[in-house]
Every structure is written in C-alpha cells, then in structure tokens.
Design goal:
With 330 residues, the chain is α/β, with parallel strands linked by helices. Helix content is 29%, strand content 28%. It has ten helices and 15 strands. The strands form three sheets. Strands 3, 4, 5, 6, 7, 14 and 15 form a seven-stranded mixed sheet that branches. A six-stranded parallel sheet has the order 10-9-8-11-12-13, sandwiched between helices. A two-stranded antiparallel sheet has the order 1-2. Strand 1 and strand 2 form a beta hairpin. The longest helix is centred in the middle third of the chain and has 23 residues. The chain binds NADPH dihydro-nicotinamide-adenine-dinucleotide phosphate.
C-alpha cells in the first residue's frame, strides 16, 4: 500500500519539496515501522524544508523532526503492532527520513510510548518544541528556580512554539511569567496562556546598555539568542540561570564575562535531540502532569502535508503563533 509523503529533492544547489506517493520498500532501515498520524512544524523543520543550514546531507529526503502514530510492524520486543508511539529528536527528519509521510521506519531506541492521557494529536501539539520547553524548566529547577520569588521568569520568542509552551507551563507551575514578543497581535494570546507581563521584543533586541544592569529576572527560557541573550544576561538576578534553547534571532553571542563572574549567572544549553530514554520519559510525564490541556489546545493550529512550503516560509519569518500539528493523512 502506498502512502503520501512530502519529499525534498535537491537540484543545482536548490532544495524543493513536493507531495508524492511512496511505497513501503522506499523507507530507510529500522526495527519499527509506524503508521504516522501527526507530525508538527518546528523552526528546524522550516530550515530543512527551505534547505537552510545544510542540516540534510542526502536527498531525496522526507523531513519532519517529530511524529506520533501507531506501530505497524516491529522487530523489537519492546513494541508490538497497535502500540501508540512518539518520536522526537535523534536527527530524524535530518539524517534519517522523518514524519512528513504516512509511514516512517526508525530504530526502536528512538521511540517512546505515547504518554498515558495524551492523544497522538496532543502529543504532537507538544512535540519537539514543547519537550524542549519542559527540558528547559527541568534544568532551571535543577539550578534552584522555584515559584514564589520576587522576580519574574522571562520567556523570549514567547509567541512561538517553544515560547508558548514555556509560558503556559511556567504559569501553571506558579511562576510569574514575563513574555517577550515582537507581535502586538499576540499580547492577548500570551496573557491567555498565563503571562503576567508582556515586553516588546525591541526592548531586549538591542545590545545591552552596560555589562551589568538592574536585576530583573529570576530565570529565563530564551528561544531567540543573539543580542537578546546578551541583553538579558546583563539583567539576571544574582545566582540565577538562563536556559538557552534557540537562535531565532541569531547565533552570535557578544557579551562579557561580568554576569558570570560578578553575579554567578549560569548559562544552561538545552539540547532536546540526543536525550536518553529516561530523560524523555521524565519530561513527558511532567508535561502530562503540568501542562494544562485547554492552554495546549488554545495554542495549536492544524495543517496538512500540502501546506508545508507556505508554513516553512512563515515560521522562518516569525509569523507562526504557537504550535502547528501536521495531519499527514490530510
Ligand atoms: P518559532 O518560530 O515557533 O518561535 C521562535 C520565536 O522567536 C518567534 O515566534 C518569534 O517570537 C521570535 N523570533 C523570530 N525571529 C526573531 C528575530 N529575528 N529576532 C527576535 N525574535 C525572533 O520556533 P520554535 O519555537 O520551534 O523554535 C524556537 C527556537 O528554538 C529556534 O531557534 C529553534 O531552532 C530552537 N529549538 C531548539 C531546540 C533544542 O533542542 N535546543 C528544540 C526546538 C527548538 P515573537 O513573535 O513572540 O517575538
């Protein structure tokens, strides 16, 4: 039985995708074949769909860095046909064919069982971006962040995928959340997710006025990087931590050592791609327990495989609000 897929091909250095029908024999090697139900749109998917950053080295390629679906066939005793599973990371959608197709074949080690209490759609509404937000919260908590302090927790790129989940999670956990966004139209949305205050993106986008400024933040989840990260580092409270997750605003970091030396600030890099099984299970369990489903649903849009080229352009331009699930059967 053939299935629909978004296939990327490269010609004369240009990458373009089209909707095709594939046979199962075309799938890469792996122990588990999954009938994919949902994948999602992440910033990295946008880069891959547009051939930016040379994340994909071999074409033709099926992108989609995460997916949820049902096991169809398995050579691994941990999974049986009919089991519901989720996959994020492991460079699936980059070095291995990913979730923008009706079927995927992957290594059993890369999968986790669909967390109890979630549908495939909601698991993907969380997806790579949501898992990353949760990993950032866990890392900040390990470094002493706790609700009830005097300063708010800052989330940058707040109206995006990672940012939206981070805002909803932190608010639910009892933190006072300050959300930085470049979109005036998203202020109401962010308040609905639980943000107590909104900052204009421009406020942090300039290089910091001085290496150390007034202490403003109890912690930070930063999806933007670049001058925004340099700026907020100068405003961190004493001994506080920043979870750096992204680079939507640039990958260069021009700062000084002063926040680290004189304020004991910690810069925690978050990588969701190569996380071991135990970390993933912990993060998924915490997401099920802590992320309000009504807020998750409010931040989720839905699209089909045919919408991917337009969505790639939109997410790289910072025009996609919240999370977008891709129903691959549509
Ligand atoms: P989104 O595009 O959904 O969110 C990014 C947000 O950043 C935008 O919504 C926008 O928020 C803001 N933004 C966009 N462009 C700029 C700019 N030029 N300057 C300042 N702010 C900008 O992407 P995701 O949430 O999927 O990913 C966010 C980042 O996190 C990406 O860099 C991605 O690669 C990274 N990431 C990292 C992971 C990891 O494991 N470390 C995993 C997942 C993602 P607003 O409109 O509110 O200002």
């Amino acid at each position: 039985m053939s299935f629909a897929a978004h296939l990327l091909e490269e010609s004369e250095g240009k990458v373009a995708g089209r909707l095709v029908e594939l046979e199962e024999s075309a799938l890469p090697a792996g122990e588990v074949t999954v009938a994919v139900e949902y994948s999602t749109l992440n910033y990295k998917d946008g880069m891959i769909l547009q051939g930016i950053g040379r994340l994909v080295r071999r074409y033709p390629h099926v992108p989609g860095v995460d997916f949820a679906g049902t096991v169809e066939a398995s050579e691994d005793p941990r999974y049986r046909p009919g089991d519901k599973v989720v996959l994020t990371g492991w460079r699936v959608g980059e070095t291995h064919w990913g979730g923008y197709a009706g079927k995927a074949r992957v290594r059993a080690d890369w999968l986790v069982p669909l967390p109890e209490g979630l549908t495939a759609r909601r698991a993907m509404a969380i997806g790579t971006a949501g898992l990353t937000a949760m990993l950032a919260v866990l890392e900040l908590e390990r470094h002493g962040l706790a609700p009830g302090g005097d300063l708010p927790v800052l989330v940058t790129g707040a109206a995006g995928g990672v940012g939206s989940v981070a805002v909803a999670l932190l608010a639910r956990l009892g933190y006072r959340v300050a959300a930085s966004t470049g979109r005036a139209a998203s202020h109401g949305y962010l308040k609905q997710l639980g943000a107590a205050e909104i900052l204009e993106r421009a406020e942090l986008a300039e290089p910091p006025a001085r290496p150390l400024d007034s202490e403003r933040w109890a912690g930070c989840i930063d999806a933007v990087g670049g001058t925004t990260l340099a700026h907020l580092l100068s405003q961190m409270g004493y001994g506080r931590a920043v979870a750096a997750v992204g680079l939507a605003g640039g990958n260069r970091l021009d700062t000084t050592v002063l926040p680290f030396l004189l304020r004991g600030v910690r810069l925690l890099g978050i990588d969701s791609v190569m996380r071991p099984y135990a970390d993933r299970i912990e993060a998924w369990n915490r997401l099920v327990a802590d992320l309000p489903l009504d807020k998750l649903d409010a931040m989720t849009g839905e699209a089909g495989l045919a919408d991917l080229p337009a969505l790639a352009e939109a997410i790289l331009a910072g025009r996609v609000q919240g999370r977008t699930v891709i129903d691959v059967r549509r």
